[in-house]
Amino acid sequence: MVEIPESLPARMFLLAYDLEKKRLAVSGSRLGYVLRAAALTELYLDGRLTEERRKPKPDTPGDDPYGLVAQIASSRPRSWQYWVRKDSRAMVRTVRDELAGGGWIRVRHRRVLGLFPCDEVTVKDPRVVKTLWGGASSALRGRPVAHVNSYDAAAVALAAAGELKTVLPGADRRRHKRRIAELTARSGPAAPAVRKVIQAYHAAAASGG
To answer: How many other C-beta atoms lie within 10 A of the C-beta of residue 76?
Structure first.
């Protein structure tokens, strides 16, 4: 049996990896948004965050591996979208380093054209990514939504919202729209928030902002 990472952000990082092209399909802020949303979703599912007036609020004490509960607790109430955006690029580095330290990936630092720094990520065991794909595929097409593993349901919700084509090409997002909506409803408010953040990201890019 193939071992997979426990944390939802680590799983989403690996699900963003394109095994054919041997690189991340998304990176930078966009990947960071998905990873931040994954961390928020994990906290929500584990009862460490709840929602009050459509904003996250600390609830049951417990582990806070990425420091999000501490951030939220020390701030005035802010939207889920705000917390998805905050420190998004730093989140990519944090999760990448976590995976590298755990032996899941290899990171090679190089310079493109000898000038621009670039981190080349390689997944050490492709079976890990394929196992995660299998869980997401099963959640999308398998048993009743209420019986789907909560992290597999969240992976589909986040992949759809974050437009991770490695997991859900556009055609699949359209074909399984109802099922995705049901899995998203199970997964909490962070997935809809990341969808709005990425829509705003596209709008800003289209307008040259």
So the answer is: 6
Q: Which residues pair with 52 in a beta bridge?
A: 55
- Residues 59-93: tens digit of each pLDDT: 998 899 999 999 999 999 999 999 999 999 999 99
Residue type, position 125, single letter = D
Contact criterion met (CB below 8 Å) for 140 and 180: yes
pTM summary value: 0.92
> At CA 12, angle to CA 8 and CA 13, rounded to 5?
120
Phi-psi region of 114 (alpha: psi -120 to 50; beta: other; left: phi over 0): left
Q: Quick one: average pLDDT of 82-111?
A: 93
- Where do the domains of the chain lie, and which CATH numbers do they carry? 8-200 (1.10.3630.10)
195's tokens: 């969808």
What tokens were used for 129? 């990514």
Q: Which residue has the higher pLDDT, 52 or 115?
A: 52
CA distance 105 to 98: 9
CA pair distance 148, 155, nearest whole angstrom = 11
Q: What is the mean pLDDT of residues 135-150?
A: 89
Report the C-alpha gap between 201 and 209 in whole angstroms. Answer: 9
